[in-house]
Amino acid sequence: MKNILVTGGAGFIGSHVIRKLVTSYPEYQIVNLDKLTYAGNLENLKDIENAGNYTFVKGCITDEKLVSEVFATHKITHVIHLAAESHVDRSISDPLIFVRTNLIGTSNLLLCAKNYWADDFDNKLFYHVSTDEVYGSLGMDNSLFTEQTAYDPRSPYSASKAGSDHMVRAFWHTYHFPIVISNCSNNYGPNQFPEKLIPLFINNIINGKALPVYGKGENVRDWLHVKDHADAIDIILHHGKKGETYNIGGHNEWTNIDLVRLMCDTVDQKLGKETGTSRELISFVKDRAGHDMRYAIDASKIDNDLGWTPNYTFEEGLAETVDWYLNNSEWLKNVTSGAYKEYYDTMYAS
Ligand code: NAD
Ligand code: TDX
């Protein structure tokens, strides 16, 4: 029996994690605490919103009173912490909100959990979901991020995530507080907010808009389907060793420009357009400030220790993702127009 607090459950990865937990474990209670920022969208959870083992609470992870109440009211035994400001470009223009949510918010959650559990940590777990970006940037060789790679964050986003990882580990070492951390590579799939590369470009292709490739498009990312990430989170929640870190990745490296060309061709094919039509939209623009060159994960620990490997091939995952955005034009229109935000702000106005 677990009463699980999932933070950021209305976001991209969080909504897939919530759906998986709510449907796979009817005996668990799942509480979703989400502030519903621009990135949080309850439409992502429409299909399970009335499930008997699911509760939504609107609120901010920095709010000590509210978070303490959530722990007490729902007798929380486990936390899966995903709430974060998550977009690198936004962190370049507005770094402070990243410090508030990612660093102070995580610290507040840790303290509220520690206080509520009153230092009785049997059958308790604080699972912190982090990113590979904390390790910095790799060269264009065969090197990979392992769990031993030294932290070297280089954007305000990754620095704030690195700081939150350090706080989580500090609680483990100082208080024997029960934690586990995972650091994952770039996710893609349904319900991702169209500011990140893949959904932004699919949306732009659909609308015949330019595809702004930063620099020369030579940067490399390691892409993983969000459902494979949700499976890994499920396995770590149940079988991860306390105090440990697990890297999660897709063994699936792409330069941005090759990926963009593949997306163009996939959409062209699905829309019955001549191959090459959407490639005309590619436009090389000024590089992102401090743009990390390459991320790639060595996921052998989670494979060897917990038996997790990705299920999706990239070809099937990307084709399915393109289909999802083509078939959910209403979702795309709403999140790009902000209509959903107006609706939920009114519904949950305090
Ligand atoms: P997202 O931006 O889609 O969703 C974030 C969610 O957190 C939203 O629902 C938002 O409303 C909520 N939120 C933001 N600030 C909050 C606050 N102060 N209080 C409560 N809720 C708040 O993010 P995502 O891509 O789903 O990422 C989820 C987590 O996974 C993040 O911690 C991110 O760092 C990590 N991660 C993401 C990726 C990726 O490729 N997207 C890869 C590795 C790790
Ligand atoms: O318009 C664009 N043009 C472009 O060339 C955008 C939005 C991105 N890019 C490039 C920058 C990156 O090299 O594409 C690559 C991927 O960009 P993002 O989707 O913004 O992801 P990234 O910067 O790699 O960070 C992501 O990876 C790990 C997520 O945003 C994080 O939340 C996650 O931790």
General form: globular
What is the CA-CA span between the terminal residues?
32 Å
- Mean pLDDT, all residues: 97
The CATH class, by name, is Alpha Beta
Number of domains: 1
Fraction in helix: 40-55%
In percent terms, what proportion of residues is strand? 15-25%
Query: Helical region count?
Result: 12
Give the C-alpha Rg: 20 Å
Q: Might you state the CATH topology name? A: Rossmann fold
**Major β-sheet, in short?**
7 strands, parallel
Class based on secondary structure composition and strand pairing: alpha/beta
Counted beta strands: 12
Cofactors and ligands present? nicotinamide-adenine-dinucleotide, thymidine-5'-diphospho-beta-D-xylose
Using the 3D structure, state the CATH architecture.
3-Layer(aba) Sandwich
CATH homolog superfamily: NAD(P)-binding Rossmann-like Domain
Which consecutive residue ranges, at least 5 long each, have pLDDT under 50?
none
Give me the strand/helix succession. Answer: EHEEHEHHEHEEHEEHEEHEHHHH
Order of the strands making up the biggest sheet:
3-2-1-4-5-6-10
Explain what you see.
- The protein is of the alpha/beta class and 350 residues long.
- It has one domain (3-192, 223-254, 290-315): Rossmann fold.
- The chain has 12 helices and 12 strands.
- The mean pLDDT is 97.
- The structure holds nicotinamide-adenine-dinucleotide and thymidine-5'-diphospho-beta-D-xylose.
- Residues 7-8, 10-14, 34-37, 39-40, 60-62, 82-86, 101, 105, 129, 131, 161, 184, 186-187, 193 line the site of nicotinamide-adenine-dinucleotide (NAD).
Q: Which key phrases capture this entry?
A:
single chain; about 350 residues; alpha/beta; Rossmann fold; seven-stranded parallel sheet; three-stranded mixed sheet; 12 strands; about 45% helix; binds nicotinamide-adenine-dinucleotide; binds thymidine-5'-diphospho-beta-D-xylose
